[in-house]
UniProtKB/TrEMBL annotation:
Molecular functions per Gene Ontology: glucan endo-1,3-beta-D-glucosidase activity
Domain of life: Eukaryota
Name this protein carries in UniProt: glucan endo-1,3-beta-D-glucosidase
Family: Belongs to the glycosyl hydrolase 17 family.
UniProt signal peptide: 1-25
Reaction catalysed by this enzyme: Hydrolysis of (1->3)-beta-D-glucosidic linkages in (1->3)-beta-D-glucans
Enzyme class: hydrolase
A biological process from GO: carbohydrate metabolic process
Protein's organism: Trapa incisa
PANTHER family, A to Z: GLUCAN ENDO-1,3-BETA-GLUCOSIDASE BG1-RELATED-RELATED (PTHR32227)
Residue ranges, annotated region (Disordered): 358-386
């Protein structure tokens, strides 16, 4: 029976990948780092002013930015620039925004005064609402209603064609992610996830995921291949149910989300990476948090973005990725790593060189190895492209 299911899954995915190739041409790909974005956190007391941040972004040719609030100084500074901006509704605002009138007032105060001179392209409603060990029941209950109210208010203002509404999730919402084709959501989030996915399907908005291969390595460095998580040359892993080969963990994590959505009956929703990165410094127990590893991870990510890569499951759909983060932020709580994810120091100097101005043709390499040995099973799931 297992062999039959495996064969069926392979046939389904092979046929669908052929269909994807027919319908999606490389001619659709943009030049340059078309899909690369950056997370611009501001939890620091010594950061460049927003006006200088615009100069920095222009110098490194980054044109997609995500912020964690609706800071009016940032929104005003970005006016007239060519940067597409994603803003965030703070968690505490979810309750009030379930009221359609409150949602309209929020947009009139935080979005409409700046748009379109500030190119607001998305609104993230909260951040990782479903991912805590004990999520706030009120936030969970208010999440989708707040998104619905905001989308309706955008429609009322004629802005829904330009601004998408979604929310970032972490990989904590998955009960399984290995092998990739076994991806499924946790049972305890199934009800709200179904509502959320229905909203995405009806509005054409993407599923945003915060994905950090670094954490997998930190938690189990003896079994997780460093080359695999860094996306260095390595043997990779072949999904036993689809025969798709993954040469890096980030792509495997993204495709696990696609399979999880398919198991709930939702096809064709695009998955984008709202956060990924690697810390350049950490506490003694934060294995792998080094300047060298951070530079390699982000350099390899940038190189793949220049090639406009898709994942093995959706090879002709560019994967949109936002790197975490623009700056090292000295006021962030938690372990040392939390204050050392930035590509740049607070004054705008490089924390390390990832080659944003021009990538080298050579890459840092270490001995390839793959030592993850996990087992799972997969149901027959067919996947459609967004």
């Amino acid at each position: 029976m297992a062999a039959c299911l495996r064969k069926t899954a392979v046939i389904h995915v092979s046929v669908l990948l052929l269909i994807f190739t027919i319908h999606f041409s490389d001619n659709d790909f943009l030049q340059g780092v078309a899909c690369l974005g950056i997370n611009y956190g501001q939890v620091g007391n010594n950061l460049l002013p927003p006006e200088r941040v615009i100069d920095l972004l222009s110098a490194v040719k980054l044109r997609k930015v995500r912020i964690y609030d609706t800071n009016p100084q940032v929104l005003a500074a970005f006016a007239g620039s060519d940067v597409d901006l994603i803003v965030t509704v703070e968690n505490e605002m979810l309750g009030p925004l379930t009221d359609p009138q409150q949602a309209l007032q929020w947009l009139n105060a935080h979005v409409k005064p700046y748009f379109p001179r500030t190119r607001i392209a998305g609104i993230h409603v909260g951040n990782e609402i479903l991912d805590a060990d004990s999520p706030d029941p009120a936030l969970v209950a208010n999440l989708v209603p707040a998104m619905i109210s905001l989308h309706a208010a955008l429609s009322q203002l004629g802005l829904d064609r330009y601004i998408q509404v979604s929310t970032p999730m972490s990989l904590g919402v998955l009960a399984e992610s290995y092998p990739t084709s076994a991806g499924r959501f946790k049972l305890e989030v199934a009800d709200i996830m179904s509502q959320f996915l229905q909203f995405l399907a009806s509005t054409g908005s993407p599923f945003w995921i915060n994905a950090y291969p670094y954490f997998a390595y930190k938690d189990d460095p003896s079994r997780v291949s460093l080359d695999y998580v860094l996306a260095n040359p390595n043997k990779g892993m072949v999904d036993p149910y689809t025969n798709l080969r993954y040469d890096n963990m980030l792509y495997a994590q993204v495709d696990a989300v696609v399979f999880a959505m398919a198991r709930m009956g939702f096809q064709g929703i695009e998955v984008r990476v709202s956060e990924t990165g690697w810390p350049s410094k950490g506490d003694p127990n934060e294995v792998g948090a080094t300047v060298q590893n951070a530079a390699i991870y982000n350099r390899n990510l940038l190189r793949r973005q220049l090639e406009n890569e898709g994942t093995p499951l959706r090879p002709n759909t560019r994967l949109e990725v936002y790197v975490f983060a623009l700056f090292n932020e000295d006021m962030k709580p938690g372990p040392t790593s939390e204050r050392n994810y930035g590509l740049f120091q607070p004054d705008g100097t490089m924390a390390y060189n990832v080659g944003l101005a021009g990538l080298s043709t050579s890459s840092d390499k270490s001995d390839p190895s793959t030592s993850i040995s996990l087992t799972s099973s997969a149901d027959k799931v067919t996947i459609k492209s967004p």
